[in-house]
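#lab-general

N.A. 3:47 PM
ok so I finally got the sequence cleaned up, no stray characters, all 256 residues accounted for. can someone with queue access submit it? mine expired

B.Y. 3:52 PM
send it over

N.A. 3:53 PM
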Amino acid sequence: MKQSKRFIFLICVCLFVFATSCSAATNAEEIKLAKILGTMNFSSKNEILNNKNQFLQELKAVLDNDSDFLLVLVDKTHFLQPDYVPEDLIPLKKNDLYNISRNDLSLRIPVEKALQVMSRGAKKDGITLLVSSTYRSYDYQKKLFARYVAQDGEALAERYSARAGTSQHQLGTAIDFGSITDEFAETKQGRWLYDHAAEYGFSLSFPAGYEDVTGYMWECWHYRYIGKEACALQKKWFGDIQQYMMEFIDAWTRED
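B.Y. 4:20 PM
back already:
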């Protein structure tokens, strides 16, 4: 009998310690959450603060994904090194699922696989996706930006082109589709992507009306693969603006 009571007592102690540690971890995360959101300015952040536990659970599910390279913040103030080249790049080849605009395109393996899945979905709706631009090296982007500066001047070039090291294309996870013009938005392909890309893990990087947030003019053709779970998190908690979510995740991981 005494042994049974001692055993029950030990179990209760263990449960208490576990509950206390979990509570401490939760409190620390909530403090961290409030601190980070206090530095950010987007309309839905109060929704996050009012539903902290649910948000933190969904955030954890996204961050526990092994493909952490999908959530790297790359923008005008967060750079990739000149020698950054994804190790798993594969060339895109002519196929029956999607079209390619030229023969020197490449993507990271998981992104190309996701592109195949999305292309099958588009095919079911009578749409064939056209891939026009994918991975770009640091040197390629440097030459491209210089060409745009010579063409339109630095101030305008800064609004629609990235300097070397600040382009999502260097990640090997971004795709420009179709004509790479504003008119693409009103094509069947452009409308289909806008409506369905997130279902396959592709997020519109530079939406209309957010140049002051993203640093770039509207690009209806530019999608970055971040995964379906991250797309859902972006839509639910960050007003469906990729930049807000990426900035938050960058700050969150840096605080660890």
